Amino acid sequence: MASRTLSKQFARTYATKALKIGLIPGDGIGREVIPAGKQVLEALPSDLGLKFEFTELKAGFELFKQTGTALPDETVEVLQKSCDGALFGAVSSPTTKVEGYSSPIVALRKKLGLYANVRPVKSVEGIGRPVDMVIVRENTEDLYIKEEKLYEKDGQKVAEAIKRITERATTKIGAIALEIALQRQAIRELGGASLHSQPTLTVTHKSNVLSVSDGLFRETVRKLYDSNPAKYSGVQYKEQIVDSMVYRMFREPEIFDVVVAPNLYGDILSDGAAALVGSLGVVPSANVGDNFAIGEPCHGSAPDIEGKGIANPIATIRSTALMLEFMGHPEAASKIYAAVDANLKEDVIKTPDLGGKSSTQEVVADVIRRL
User: Fold this and answer.
1) Whether the model pTM is above 0.90
2) Which pLDDT score is estimated for 192?
3) pLDDT digits (tens, 9 = 90+) for 294-332
4) What pLDDT does 191 receive?
5) N or C: lower Cβ tally within 10 Å for the chain?
6) Where is the Isopropylmalate dehydrogenase-like domain (predicted)?
7) What digits encode the pLDDT tens for the residues 25-42?
8) What number of helices (H) and strands (E) belong to the chain?
9) Can you tell me whether residue 27 is helix, strand or coil?
10) Burial (0-12, 13-18, 19+ Cβ within 10 Å), 225
11) Which residues contact 252 (CB under 8 A, 6 or more apart)?
């Protein structure tokens, strides 16, 4: 089972009512893989007692080009007032500045208070190198606040960007990272398979250069860890400068358990870590706040394969399970993870990014069969 905290701070409890899930396909292959998440939810065993209602919502760069709006107010309002969770597909992000456009997923994270991006990266037993880590990425600040300016000095263009790290946001991300470390250990003690015998938190930073901003991130997480020795004494605390973190992650990925990082480093590390398990197409994530979670595959909109029916749905299916975990349904999530692992282990029905020839729908059908 991927890591997630079952503490009252994050879990939500639902009665027998149908869970309302917002579906936001976005751009490119997002429109091909988000239906996979819906199909898997509808195929969950009836003895779990879960029912779902779905609502299609709009966002994305294609929508911006059509309407001038990348994230309609209606989408945000429906998520806030009517949904229990959501799945987000992918966004086509332009590489050059487009006046008036900003990423809808970044905006959603801010508007819904989804301050943590949780990205489990785990290998399937017997396939490739052993990896079992969770990268917990701060989701609301750092360079992603997008406060940039361009001006001229001495006849030359100068571009500047503000990197913002706050004690408040860092405390929140440090707290959920520590909770995840504790929860992963609880699962191990119940017999869950793992590479790790002790929970470990690795704080990633570049405070040897950015002594003020990254220094505040590092110091804040350390202060939080030290503030409650009764609770966190079983967690091994480590720090790693981001460039050496990249080196060690590829050289010895098995040593990392829970990694917490500012927004930019977390983004880079989690995409890089996907190479350790074969493809971005198998790596899930969840954007998490205190009362809401959006499952989001780590891959992009992949315009090179859009419309070909060969996009890997595994990342979306795993993100669907991760969303269920943060909604308080670990049993349902575990069944999805087991079905996905069985598909990957058999190594027969797989999409081209993993060396196979299967279609998106063939993989979805195989996972559902294994449910």
Assistant:
1) no
2) 57
3) 999 988 899 999 999 999 999 999 999 999 999 989 889
4) 62
5) C
6) 20-367
7) 999 999 999 999 999 999
8) 12, 12
9) coil
10) buried
11) none
Residue 90 pairs in a beta bridge with 26
pLDDT at 357 over 60: yes
Residue 212 structure tokens: 């003020």
By the 8 A CB rule, do 151 and 171 touch? no
User: Which residue blocks in 190-212 are alpha helix, DSSP H?
Assistant: none
CA distance 304 to 260: 32
Classify 241 in phi/psi space as left (phi over 0), alpha (psi -120 to 50) or beta: beta
Helix or strand or coil: residue 54? strand
Domains for the chain: give ranges and CATH numbers: 1-114+289-371 (3.40.718.10), 119-276 (3.40.718.10)
Output the six-digit token pair for 114.
């989804």
Q: Which band of pLDDT confidence, cut at 50, 70 and 90, is reported for residue 280?
A: confident
Rounded Cα distance, 151 and 219, in Å: 34
Looking at beta carbons, which pairs linking 245-254 to residues 24 or more positions away fall under 8 Å? Answer: 245/202, 245/204, 245/269, 246/272, 249/273, 249/276, 250/275, 250/276, 253/129, 253/130, 253/131, 253/133, 254/129, 254/130, 254/131, 254/132, 254/195
- pLDDT at residue 5 greater than cutoff 80: no
Q: Tokens in use for 323?
A: 């969303």
